[in-house]
Write a structure and sequence with these properties.
Strand content: over 45%
Shape: globular
CATH class: Mainly Beta
Radius of gyration: 18 Å
Helix content: under 10%
Order of helices and strands: EEEEEEEEEEEEEE
Largest sheet: 6 strands, antiparallel
Structural class: mainly beta
Number of helices: 0
Length: about 180
Amino acid sequence: MIALPRPTAMPPPPPVSWPSNVELDALPSNVAHTIDIDFAHKIHLVGYAFDPESAKANEQVKLTFYWRCDDRVKEGWRLFTLLEYDDSDGWRAWGNAGVGPLRREDRPGHPVLGVDRWTPGKFYVDSQTFAAPSVVTDAVTVMAGIAKGSARLHVVAGPSDDENRGIVGKIAVRRE
């Protein structure tokens, strides 16, 4: 009988120098909205804030997501944000893959502070901005997820669609 090697745990990621406002020991008590979107029992989206929550056309909106790491993920998985809205020509989508400290890349497809470097038990603050659409629309639906190429971590709990995108919330767009 041939002895097979035992599977080993993933090795720890190389040390990272985290900005003090990005990696936290606890979820801040002043998070505007709490939510629990569970991505494959590894990463949870646990809170968010939109500033402002109702925007004028072309106004800058700051999105802040609060993530909790429960288990390590392999290299190559990346956060994504998708904004969808309806205009007179049909549905529009806007993606935001490389914006913010947790998404900035040191080489194509490799975020410096990506989810593969997160520590179980820690919380991560993910901020980014976008301009509200200039078209007439009632609201922008904000979705988030974790992808590797065309694959996505499965949403096992929380609001989501059939494409494993967590549905975070809506930002009202004022017609002023």
